[in-house]
Specification:
By secondary structure, the chain is α+β, with helices and mostly antiparallel strands. The protein has helices at residues 3-8, 21-30, 37-45, 65-74, 76-80, 127-135, and strands at 12-14, 49-53, 58-62, 85-89, 94-98, 107-111, 121-124. A hairpin with an 8-residue loop joins strand 5 (94-98) and strand 6 (107-111).
Length: 138
């Protein structure tokens, strides 16, 4: 993990155990959605986490690999937005994900309640940019 990503995640209790590269690769082969490289790297080191971001203490849940796999198939929003990989939430109705078909702003947020592709709000081109945007309360 880079020092800047570590700083953004300072108030997030990351899982001390990682999913490992082999488990991440095996899970991704079984899922309908693919995962971005920076998220796979984080999952290999830390299989999820929960805490807050930024000075306003915005809640965040970074889901473990098994939940990402389950949500990829089960969420109405992932069925309504093909290719969307959800990997976290605010603990409520806002999901965080990666939509690879976009040219820019592939990382963003979307309502978990009856969402469509038009509701995906791009916030960055990397996991770090997404977390920075959330920590700045954008």
């Amino acid at each position: 993990m880079t020092s800047s990503l570590g700083a953004l995640l300072a108030d997030v209790r990351l899982s001390p155990e990682g999913a490992g590269e082999e488990r991440v690769a095996a899970a991704e082969q079984e899922m309908d959605c693919k995962l971005p490289a920076d998220l796979k790297h984080l999952l290999a080191e830390h299989d999820g986490g929960e805490g807050t971001l930024g000075s306003r203490k915005r809640p965040i849940q970074l889901w473990p690999l098994e939940r990402i796999r389950a949500e990829c198939e089960a969420q109405e929003v992932t069925r309504a937005v093909p290719g969307l990989a959800l990997f976290g939430s605010d603990g409520g109705s806002e999901g965080y994900g990666w939509l690879p078909r976009l040219k820019t702003g592939k990382y963003g947020r979307i309502s978990l309640l009856a969402a469509g592709a038009h509701e995906f709000e791009p916030l960055g081109d990397s996991l770090e940019e997404l977390l920075r945007a959330l920590s700045e309360d954008r």
